[in-house]
Amino acid sequence: MPTATYHLSSEELAAAVALSGQHEKATGFLRTIAGEVPGEQLAAMLNTAHHSLMSRGLCSVDGSDQLVDGMTDLVKGVLNPDALIRATKTAPFGEWALNFFRITNGWLRQRNINLWISRYDLPIVNPVIAEEIISFYNSHYDQHMVGRQITLPDDFFEYSPERRRDESFLREELSRVAKDDDARRASGEIAHAEWRGTFFREGEASSPVVFLIQGPCTLWRVAAEQAENHPEGVRLWLVALSADEFKKVVNTIIT
Q1: What is the pTM of this model?
Q2: Which superkingdom, per the lineage (predicted)?
Q3: What is the side-by-side strand order in the sheet with 219-226?
Q4: Fewer CB within 10 A of the end CB, N or C, for the chain?
């Protein structure tokens, strides 16, 4: 199929899903946007989005409610991908996601423009994916920090968002498991992180979730390993990455 690009609001995507016969999933999409609202309001949202699709020539206007071919592939890719590669990052001022859905003729790429609108490109070829993900994170690195490893508390992932931004709290917690200099450095990097991210692959070649923290100085990966003699069974630590090491992480996940 020829390359196609679509810009869709979340409501328009839900309407396209409904037109494909997946009404329950369409309603689920809308509830992630609007919350628990009355059914009549959801129906009105779908109806408005349906008219928007018709006005843009993305579905029929003769009452048959048929999606154009590219839109059909888009919906199939989002609902039933053979594989999903997902990169996310969250900052104090916003959240972003970059998704790749495996489809018949390649991949479907979804890029968030803001909270409500996404751009969909299909199909794209595999070699583009690694470059897109590295560009999406737009990381920076401190060569003096590369390879440094700092032990983390067992309950690191249980900290509230407020605690993750509290440098004094973090330093006190890290001082219990790491050297004082490491605790000082890591608490500053975590508390003043530019963004936190996750990166993983589901489906035919699923992968563990990669947790990333972009500090003011460098990019960190939260590493974990099984430890039979450890109280929690898993040991956590931070690893400072170089650009080459991060590229290897990306390529390992997507291949």
Answers
A1: 0.87
A2: Bacteria
A3: 4-9, 117-124, 106-112, 94-103, 83-91, 195-203, 210-214, 219-226, 234-240, 149-151
A4: C
